Amino acid sequence: MGAADADTVVMERGHLRIEIALRPFELTIRRAGRKLVRSLGAWVAEGTVHDHFIHFTEGVLAREELAPVERARAAVVRRLAADRMKLRLELAGGRRAQLELRVLGDDRIRLEVEPDGEPLRVALDWRRRADERFVGLGARHSTQFDQAGRVVQLGADRRYTGPDCPAELLAGGGIPQGDCAPVPWLVSSRGYAVWIESAANGIQFDLAGDRVSASTRRAAGPLRMDFLCDPTPAARLRALCRLTGFPAVLPEWGYGFWKSRDVYGHQDDVVDDYEGLRRHEIPVDAIVIDSPWATQYNTWEFNPYQFPDAPGLIRRMRADGVRTVVWVTPWVNTDSRDGQIPPQPESERLHREPAPNYAPGVAAGAFVSDGSGEPFVTQWWMGTGSPVDFTGAAAEEWWREQVKRVLALGVEGVKADDGEGYYLPEEVRFADGRTGAEAAWALGGLHRASLQRALDEIHPGTGVLFARCGWSGQHAVGLTWAGDQASDFWSLRVLVVATLSAACSGFSNWSHDTGGYLGHRLVERCPPELLVRWLQFGCFTPLMHAHGRMPQEPWNYSEHVLELYRAYALLHEQLVPYVRSAAVTASRTGLPIIRPLCLLDPTDPRGWEIGDAYGYGPALWVAPVLDDEAREREVALPRGEWIEAWSGCSVRGGGETVVDAPLERIPVWVRAGSIVVTYPASHVARGLGDVEERERPLVATLWGSPRLGRAAARLADGTRITWRSGEWSVVSEFEREISFHEIGS
User: Fold this and answer.
1) Terminal-to-terminal C-alpha distance of the chain
2) CB 642 within 8 A of CB 654
3) CB-based contacts of 268: which residues, under 8 Å, 6+ apart?
4) How many C-beta atoms surround the C-beta of residue 220 within 10 A?
């Protein structure tokens, strides 16, 4: 209900109470009597944008010149109803703005601000508590998990400041790299989260001062922001997923081990990887044929000089249980000479020519417009071309039909690179009428949807999409990987932070390039010890994916490294039923497979700061080793009773513990009283293959003694395994071969 007097307006629904003071204007949000947001105001500012996009690193150097802000001084009620209110804001300097407030549920409030005129930036801000912590905003490659104290412009935040950053670039904030998976979603330790419903460049969160501000550029349209006030961070994440989509449950091979190289110069190089993995008895589920593989970028036609028998290659690997995944971006080129080119004269000739599907694309109106009706043409990191406009039904179908022709050859996965909004300037226009200023970051999600639709049409239930770009809702389609990292321990450390930040932003199906894509100092392969430590982190990531520019195949290292590589790839395969069970939970509740402590126990203040350890599914706590030559680790354990996985020793959580971490081991604990279900090592020694899930043998292990005398685990196929008072039982639609074990009980 809503009520007003001369100076204040109050709106209430369920536990929510919104109090608006009109003169001077400020807004307070309470839940169950507790102040969540206090002294909220609005402002605009004139200014100019000087953002600089660097193609080589796909990084944005963000800079704006802002005039003094014009704050909202007073408000006049224009309309008041039980769940909606419209105010006219009077700003310093005489400008006016319209503010609409809507109560959209018992725990959701929407504020929409639209100022008069064309200022550069429109913002809502509120007073920050001294002890307030912030997480989320997508994959934040930062040294700290808590983002308090930072100013983050989405799409322009990522910087490499590792050991090989030149001093002159370090002084300017580091080497800009692509901020590939941002999300306008911020979670506060004070009991609320904010989501900006926009797909525009330039969205900014200022968490550095006494007031928190969230702002967009006026060219994007009104600032539309939701406050989600559900009682826990996990509940707020669930509320976001209700609005934008829940993560999918992928087929088993989407959680397996994949191998790739930056360039397979010839079909024989793919065979070398495939046969090398088989020769060295490393399990594998897919080979990813990265750029380049097509005649030009992106024709969806195998280059016959590079792949003289692509169908035969695909069939050969598929007959042995290994899927093929192909790389693509949402661009079609007029000139591919600046891209990666296979080492054949005929391939070089092809890449000098426009892609043969470019002219038909123009005729079909398939490309983003430059604003004047012509295709938008620009340089990107694999040449010069035009991005596909997926807002048009005809363009989407034109693209999807090309995809399906390749999938019909037996390709079962697509790696969707690129699609980030920083490539699209404000003036470009989409078929649905929106401009780049309004919808630049919509491209990646629309591309995902088109590719997933193609996979579902050709390989229903078995195809897998693997994508780099992120934004609101993109966590719901396929897998996401963390972009490019250098091969050094600094990059591994900030990657773990990015993984946890992404998890707090809804990403559950997650991966990264084991060993780092860019190499050590950008010119050398990943050092052996770092490769092992990265491999261990990859083992406890939903998809384990080995990819890089350098020769980082394990057989190029020592026998000891090869043995560890084999062991951790095998352990990852064994964990697939456990991981897919957690994926089902994510698909229903939004709680991701990787679980930062703030999602598991929000009352533990450490949870908002721990950026080097995480929950993995419901039972495991994982602490990757992130320092060179480290042979022990201090780890913060969640509250409760835990069992160290390698030694079987019990330890009480709630504090810090120091654990041995020889090169062979990553510190892992199992929550006491948990059942962890895995596959037998012998069953997945070559990979997951093609056995029906319901026909696979299982190993069920009870770790420690359940406090209440019972424990249960439910698998993705519905099988339920229970231990009660010393007795095991299984409920399943299928007859399962299961062995039972107990450790430390």
Assistant:
1) 55
2) no
3) none
4) 24
CB atoms within 10 A of CB 409: 15
Strands (DSSP E) contained in 272-322 are 286-289
pLDDT above 90: percentage of residues in the chain: 96
Say if CB 486 and CB 520 are below 8 A apart: yes
| Closest CA relative to residue 3, chosen from 108, 77, 110 | 77
- Packing angle of the helix pair 267-279, 310-319 (nearest 10 deg): 10
Alpha carbon of 426 to those of 116, 307, 430, 709: distances in Å? Answer: 20, 39, 11, 61
The residue with tokens 């725990």 is: 107
What number of other Cβ atoms are within 10 A of residue 502's Cβ? Answer: 27
Is there a contact between 98 and 88 (Cβ–Cβ < 8 Å)? Answer: yes
> Is 670 in contact with 651 (CB distance < 8 Å)?
no
| Contact present, 486 and 158 (Cβ < 8 Å) | no
Provide the CB-side half-sphere exposure for 212 (13 A, CA). Answer: 26
Strands 710-714 vs 698-703: parallel, antiparallel or unpaired: unpaired
Model pLDDT, residue 172: 86
> Taking phi first (over 0 means left), then psi (-120 to 50 degrees means alpha), and beta for anything else, what does residue 33 get?
left
Q: Using the 8-state DSSP alphabet, how is residue 629 labeled?
A: T
Distance from chain centroid for Cα 539: 17
| Interaxial angle between packed helices 528-539 and 559-574, expressed in degrees from 0 to 180 and rounded to the nearest 10 | 10
Instruction: Give the Cα separation of 115 and 108 in Å (integer).
Output: 23
Using alpha carbons only, give the angle 44, 48, 52 rounded to the nearest 5 degrees: 125
Q: What is the number of alpha carbons within 13 Å of residue 54 lying toward its C-beta?
A: 14
Per the document, the length of the chain is 745
Nearest CA among 672, 668, 592, 601 for reference residue 635: 668
24 cis-preceded (ω within 30 degrees of 0):
yes
The encoded tokens of residue 469 equal: 């770009």
289/307 Cα distance (integer angstroms): 11
Helix (H, G, I), strand (E, B) or coil at 370: coil
Q: What per-residue confidence (pLDDT) applies to 3?
A: 59
Arithmetic mean of pLDDT, 599-603: 96
Q: What is the pLDDT of residue 676?
A: 98
pTM (whole model) above 0.90: yes
pLDDT at 579: 98
The predicted-structure confidence for 680-710, as pLDDT tens digits, reads as follows 999 999 999 999 999 999 999 999 999 889 9
Helices and strands, counts by H and E, the chain = 14, 49
Calpha distance 105→240 (Å, rounded): 13
State how far the Cα of 26 lies from the Cα of 24, in Å rounded to an integer: 7
* Residue with token string 């639609």: 733
Q: How far apart are CA 152 and CA 140, in angstroms?
A: 9
Instruction: Judge whether 650 and 641 are in contact, CB under 8 Å.
Output: yes
Residue 191 near residue 36, CB atoms below 8 Å: yes
Pick the closest to residue 371 from 445, 431, 331, 441 (CA basis).
431
Residue 544 token pair: 């384990």
Query: From CA 483, how far away is CA 246, in angstroms rounded?
Result: 22
pLDDT category at 56 given cuts 50, 70, 90 is confident
pLDDT of residue 621: 98
